Amino acid sequence: MALEEVHISSLVVHVKPESLSDVKAQILEMPNTEIHGESEEGKIIVVLETENQGYVTDTIDKINNLNNVLTTFLVYHQIEHFDSQSEEDS
To answer: Chief subcellular site (predicted)?
Structure first.
């Protein structure tokens, strides 16, 4: 029985307001990222759905290193386990 997992995480990314659209476009170019909200003050809500925790931390680092990003922080992280064998059987 092979157990697999999915990591669901949400981030808040604070950027310089004048760079909001550019940073959003760069974030959406990264795999497994979705944007679920933004504010005029330069805050972006990003959701990740990944296979492992390493990808979450790597993505936070990549976003934090984009030009005009002030800070990136993890708000929520959940791990869902499922049996990949039963998925294949259905």
So the answer is: cytoplasm
**SS3 per residue for 18-61:** HHHHHHHHHHHCCCCEEEEEECCCCEEEEEEEECCHHHHHHHHH
pLDDT at residue 90 greater than cutoff 50: no
DSSP letter assigned to residue 66: S
Paired tokens of 86: 């039963």
Q: How does pLDDT run across 26-72, given as a tens digit for each residue? A: 999 999 999 999 999 999 999 999 888 889 999 999 999 999 999 99
Read off the pLDDT of residues 4-31 as tens digits, 9 standing for 90 and up. Answer: 889 999 999 999 999 999 999 999 999 9
69: β partners: 15
| Residue the block writes with tokens 């936070």 | 60
